[in-house]
Structures are given as C-alpha cells and as structure tokens.
C-alpha cells in the first residue's frame, strides 16, 4: 500500500534494469499498475459515500451530511480518476451524476438547492465539467447539455452577479439574499470565477475571458484578498458592511490553489510575464500548507477542528497543483516533489476502518489517524493520482483535441422559473422577503465557520 514500499521496489527494479538492461517501458508500467491498485481501493472507498443510486436517494448527491457542493467536487475527483488512472469503471455513473444536477437552465443552479447554494458551490460543479471538457471525458448524449456549455453557463451566470455597488466590485459569497453570507465577499467565489475564466480562455481562445480574469484579479488585489510578492497569499474574504475594508485573514489550501492554477492557465495562454510572476509567487508561497513536504490544511488541521467541507480542501489543492505544474512547467519539479511526498504520506494514512483502506486527515501521522469521511477519501485520492502528471497529457483545448461543444452565451437564456437574485431584487422584492421568512428556518450556511 505504501508508496515508499513502492519506491524501494523501484530501486530494485532500477538495479535490475542496470544489470539486465530491460526495457524502460516495463518500469513505467510497473509504476502505473502499483498506483492503480492503491488508488482503486481508495476510489472504491470514496464511492462508498455515493448513495445516489439507493432507493429514495437523489442521483448525483453523496450521503448526509455532505453538502451539494462537495458532490460536485467528488465528481471532479472521479473524472481525474478516470483520466490519470486510465480506468473507466465509474465513467457512466459520473456522467449520470453530473447531468442530474444541472437544473432547469443548465447552469448548476437547481431550484431545490437554493437554501444551500452559493457562488462557490455552483463553481465546484463548474470546475468539474470544465475538467470534463479539457480531458475529453466522454460527451453527454445529443440533446443533453455538453460539458463546455455547462462550464460557460456557470461562468456567465456568476459573472452576471458581479456587484459593483458594494466594495467597488466582486461577487458576494451567496447567490440568494436569504442565505447567511450574502453580506460577505469571499475569495473562493471570486477566485473560482477567475479560475474558470482562465480555463475557458485557454480552451476556447476567447480573450474576453482574460479581460474578466484581469478584472477579478485586480479587484481581489485592491481589496487585499490577494497579496503579491514574496508572500503571495489568498485570504478568506471581507464583509460588505464596512466596504470590504477589513479582510478575514484565514488561509485555505483551495483558495491558494484556485488563484495559482488560474494564473498558470493565463500564463500558458497569454505568455504574459505578469501571470508567470504571479504563478511562481503563489506556488512558492504555498509552502505554508506543507509540513516537511506533507500537505496539510494549516488553518484547522493543527487545532483538530476541520469541518466536513474543510476536510476536502486538500483534494482541490492537489488537483490545482497538478494543473499548475503542467501549465507552468518551470514549477514542475518543485510541485511534483511535493505531490509525491504527500502522496506517499497519504497512502500510509489510508490503512484504517473495517475495510482497511479508509484514509485519514493528518498524513504525517504514522498510519491511520482515526479520521474518516468523503473529504479524507477525496484528498488522498487526488494527491495520489496527481503524481501521474508526469505521464499524462496536459488539459486539451478546442485546438488540441478537445471535442466538447459550447456556446459563449450559455446561461444567459433565462427561463421563467429562474431565481436569479437580480430578477428578484428588481421585480419582486416583496416576494423575496416572504421567501426569506419561510426559508429563514432552514438556512444552512455552507460554512458558518467563517464567522470567527
Ligand atoms: C479500475 O477501477 C476499479 C474500481 O476501483 C477496480 O476494481 C479495478 O481493479 C481497476 N482496474 C485497474 C486496471 O486498475
Ligand atoms: C457506459 O454506458 C455505455 C452506453 O450505455 C456502454 O456502452 C458502456 O459499456 C458503459 N461503460 C462502462 C464502463 O460501463
Ligand atoms: C433537485 O432537482 C434535480 C433536478 O434539477 C433533481 O435531479 C433532484 O432529484 C432534486 N433533488 C432533490 C433532493 O429532490
Ligand atoms: C468602497 O470601496 C471602493 C473600492 O475601494 C471605493 O471605490 C468606494 O468609494 C468605497 N465606498 C465607500 C462608501 O467608502
Ligand atoms: C509536522 O509534522 C510532524 C511530524 O512529522 C508533527 O509532529 C508536527 O506536529 C507537525 N507540525 C504541525 C505544525 O502540525
Ligand atoms: C503550456 O503548457 C504546455 C503543456 O504542458 C507546455 O508544453 C508549454 O510549455 C506551456 N507553455 C508555457 C508558456 O509555459
Ligand atoms: C467570448 O466570451 C465572452 C465573455 O464570456 C462572451 O460574451 C462571448 O460571447 C464569447 N465570444 C464567442 C465568439 O464565443
């Protein structure tokens, strides 16, 4: 199970290569099959949390208490599993899951999630379908929304919520005014808009997305959500009440990753020096999320109080590190080394539970640390499969083999049932207030932990 055992094995293999001069292909396959057998157990463990196909459960959703957004994150991990481990076991179940939650407008704003869904939640489904487009994941049947279309739809609906009236710009955390966090502008929402925009720019070649990325990045920088220079950090967010003048300085791995990979895509697409410098700085500054080269969620893991959401953040961070290494190859060796050592530690941690392959949270712990959950399983899987960046192609674009079809105006064809807050604000304030009262009791802020 442990990758270091694998390394020892490889040393023996290398030695025998030296002696017998065997073909190098064999060595490569040996690495792949070892990784495949380790990750397949962990992927199975992840899918144990998928209850969507059980009687009375919802297709696309994972078991309680995992929120809707994390399902989007988990399907993204299964796309990576298919691509990096070259295993199509979960392909059909993933397509079905991704298509089940697109909602009436094909924009990942299903009406029945309006008490939990914020901009960030929508974005994590958007990031999954963006990857599906870039990886050439099997396309949905004709007549169904296509991966690129869905990603553009998510981008356009998010961009449409840009709010210049408060704090000089930025997205609010929440989409709907009845959810707690509507008064907060955070990095995960804005960073995700930036990130998806960067990937759409490179995929489609449409430079309007770059203009949007500049606008989002500049606003985040001006507001102090992103810093530059030696320590290029991404902070959590700021409240509208004081015009975003007071930044909550919590740092999460996935925020650093969203900005880092977004900058790397922009560098790859535009070749501009400013994006190279920002990428390199964000990569270097990511060192705060590693303890002896082992990835950890610094803001909560040390104190042992990471909530269910936060326990999955390392999954996205690992994914974004892998993408960054491929988009800005001068960072490749540095990132590969961090991923490899973290994967080694994570594999050591995936030895728990009754199934013997449950993954823990603290990867430097000797063996399983007693933690378990969808987030733990996703994070371990992603860090291990991203070790494959050396052998698998970089994300494709429309010009280099990707086949997913889209529409630059996706998401702007609004149906009559659309619950867009702008529509509510201008046309139906009284109605919205009534909805607020009714729904007020069932508010489930995706992350009430923000209010520290
Ligand atoms: C593919 O994945 C499934 C599910 O994890 C696993 O049972 C199977 O062994 C994997 N196949 C290979 C070749 O890795
Ligand atoms: C997925 O579904 C298609 C169409 O039903 C089928 O041809 C294919 O074999 C399935 N793939 C897997 C891996 O189950
Ligand atoms: C929510 O709506 C989607 C379609 O938009 C549907 O697939 C899903 O089953 C619904 N979820 C619940 C919990 O009813
Ligand atoms: C709020 O901040 C923005 C951006 O810094 C600034 O342009 C605007 O004047 C500020 N508004 C108030 C009321 O201070
Ligand atoms: C870093 O890892 C070591 C074990 O290698 C552990 O003892 C220590 O507590 C960790 N540091 C932090 C800041 O969590
Ligand atoms: C863009 O990414 C590709 C694929 O990894 C890589 O070959 C190329 O060198 C990158 N371009 C730049 C400017 O780094
Ligand atoms: C380019 O992207 C912009 C911004 O999202 C969009 O409005 C426009 O329709 C796109 N153009 C094309 C040709 O797709």
TrEMBL record:
- Its transmembrane ranges are 430-451
> What are the GO MF terms of this UniProt record?
mannan endo-1,6-alpha-mannosidase activity
Q: Name one Pfam family in it.
A: Glyco_hydro_76
Task: Give GO cellular component annotations, separated by semicolons.
Answer: endomembrane system
The main location is membrane
List keywords of the entry alphabetically.
Answer: Cell wall biogenesis/degradation, Glycoprotein, Glycosidase, Hydrolase, Membrane, Signal, Transmembrane, Transmembrane helix
Enzyme Commission number(s) from the entry: 3.2.1.101
InterPro entries for the chain: 6-hairpin_glycosidase_sf, Glyco_hydro_76, Mannan-1_6-alpha_mannosidase
Subcellular localization is given as:
Endomembrane system
User: What is the protein's known function?
Assistant: Required for normal synthesis of the cell wall.
The entry assigns this protein to a family as follows: Belongs to the glycosyl hydrolase 76 family.
**Name assigned to this protein:** Mannan endo-1,6-alpha-mannosidase
Tell me which species this is from: Wickerhamomyces pijperi
């Amino acid at each position: 199970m442990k990758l270091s055992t694998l390394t020892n094995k490889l040393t023996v293999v290398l030695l025998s290569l030296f002696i017998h001069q065997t073909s190098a292909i064999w060595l490569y396959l040996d690495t792949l099959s070892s990784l495949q057998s380790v990750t397949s157990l962990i992927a199975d463990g992840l899918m144990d949390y998928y209850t969507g196909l059980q009687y009375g459960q919802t297709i696309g959703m994972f078991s309680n208490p995992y929120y809707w957004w994390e399902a989007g994150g988990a399907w993204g991990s299964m796309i990576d599993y298919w691509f990096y481990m070259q295993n199509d076991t979960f392909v059909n179940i993933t397509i079905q899951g991704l298509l089940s939650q697109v909602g009436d407008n094909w924009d990942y704003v299903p009406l029945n999630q309006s008490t939990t869904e914020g901009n960030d939640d929508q974005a994590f489904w958007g990031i999954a379908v963006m990857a599906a487009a870039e990886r050439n994941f099997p396309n949905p049947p004709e007549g169904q929304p296509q991966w690129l279309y869905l990603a553009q739809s998510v981008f356009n609906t998010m961009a449409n919520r840009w709010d210049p009236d408060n704090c000089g710009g930025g997205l609010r955390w929440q989409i709907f005014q009845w959810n707690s966090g509507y008064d907060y502008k955070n990095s995960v929402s804005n960073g995700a808009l930036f990130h998806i925009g960067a990937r759409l720019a490179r995929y489609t070649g449409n430079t309007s997305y770059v203009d949007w990325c500049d606008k989002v990045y500049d606003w985040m920088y001006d507001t102090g959500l992103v810093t530059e220079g030696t320590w290029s950090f991404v902070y959590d967010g700021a409240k509208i009440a004081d015009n975003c003048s007071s930044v909550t300085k919590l740092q999460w791995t996935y925020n650093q990753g969203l900005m880092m990979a977004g900058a790397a895509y922009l560098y790859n697409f535009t070749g501009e020096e400013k994006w190279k410098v920002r990428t390199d700085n964000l990569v270097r500054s990511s060192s705060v999320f590693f303890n002896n080269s082992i990835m950890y969620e610094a803001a909560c893991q040390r104190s042992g109080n990471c909530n269910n959401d936060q326990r999955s953040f390392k999954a996205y961070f690992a994914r974004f590190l892998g993408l960054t290494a491929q988009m800005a190859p001068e960072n490749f060796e540095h990132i590969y080394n961090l991923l490899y050592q973290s994967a080694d530690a994570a594999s050591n941690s995936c030895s728990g539970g009754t199934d013997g392959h449950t993954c823990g949270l603290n990867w430097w712990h000797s063996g399983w640390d007693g933690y378990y959950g969808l987030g733990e399983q996703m994070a371990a899987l992603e860090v291990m499969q991203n070790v494959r960046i050396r052998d698998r192609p970089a994300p494709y674009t429309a010009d280099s083999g990707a086949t997913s079809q889209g529409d630059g105006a996706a998401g702007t064809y609004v149906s009559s049932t659309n619950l867009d807050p702008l529509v509510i604000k201008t046309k139906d304030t009284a109605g919205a207030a009534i909805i607020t009262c009714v729904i007020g009791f069932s508010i489930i802020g995706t992350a009430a932990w923000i209010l520290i």
